[in-house]
Amino acid sequence: MITLKEGQKRVVFFISDRTGLTAESYGQSLLAQFPNQEYQFQRLSFIDTAEQAQLACDLIHQEMDRTGIIPIVFSTLVDDETRSIVDTCDACVIGLFNTFIEPLETLFGEKSAHTLGSSRQIFRSFDYQKRLDAIDYTMLHDDGIRPDRYDQADVILTGVSRSGKTPVSLFLAMTFAVKVANYPITDHELKSDYLPDCLSPFTKRLIGLTIQPRRLSDIRLNRRSSQEYSSLATCNREVKAVERMFANSKIPVFDSTTTSIEELSGNVMKVLGLNRV
Predict the structure, then answer these.
(1) Known PANTHER family for this protein (predicted)?
(2) Model pTM?
């Protein structure tokens, strides 16, 4: 077994014959059980021919040769030919569909359809248009855009900049078909102990996100932000101020420091009593 050096990250591939969101969601959930590891992620979408599968395999081998570290591959490929090619890669390959489909085939006494993208049919039966509308609304109301339309939101996420609002917003929209707006509390607004005027009418659908200052500083530094903006002192001050604001406003608050997007989203749905699509 090769031990990773300090600062070295293991490459993780998410491979799918469609968007790769399922592979990434499952993979991230599993990897979250190993918090001491560090990863570099790559998503390889729409791998639906033998040629593309071989190219994906070549890319995986290149990473193995470059780093000397065995990559991890999470695959949701269902076609036998493409799947068998990826399964032979010099990597730790985890076939998510195989893991779950084979026991079901045994239980049902029949072979699965092995249909590419068949999950899309399920989406249609659960009001596909509602999901599209939710995604559209969420993207148009990211990062404080159009607060005059917050009355149309099912959920409003708020917190300091880089506290995890956007990824949670998109996951909620794509997974649960809820309309999500998110609003970054600015440095000027943090001088007050109470919510900005654009948020105060919506406390029943408002969720605060907080984060540990050290983690916030690391995220901002990785974004190549200014030294003052990403300094630990600034992050400490902002987090303390926003948590005081949340407490005074009596809104639910979740810590995004080590909680996965999936778990945060589930907590939001539960605390607001929202129905899943």
Answers:
(1) PYRUVATE, PHOSPHATE DIKINASE REGULATORY PROTEIN 1, CHLOROPLASTIC
(2) 0.59
Q: CA-to-CA distance for 183 and 166, rounded, in angstroms? A: 9
| Interatomic CA distance for residues 233 and 39, integer angstroms | 28
Q: Give the largest CA-CA distance in the chain.
A: 65
Residue located via tokens 């009596």: 250
Question: What's the rounded Cα separation, in Å, for the pair 15 and 43?
Answer: 6
- Note the CATH number of domain 10-120: 3.40.50
For β-strands 72-75 and 10-15, DSSP reports them as parallel
Model confidence pLDDT, tens digit, residues 198-221: 999 999 999 999 999 999 999 998
- For the chain, give every domain's residue range: 10-120, 127-272
- Determine the 3-state secondary structure of 86 from DSSP: helix
In the beta sheet, which residues pair with residue 164? none
Most confident of 27-41, 45-59, 79-93, 143-157: 143-157
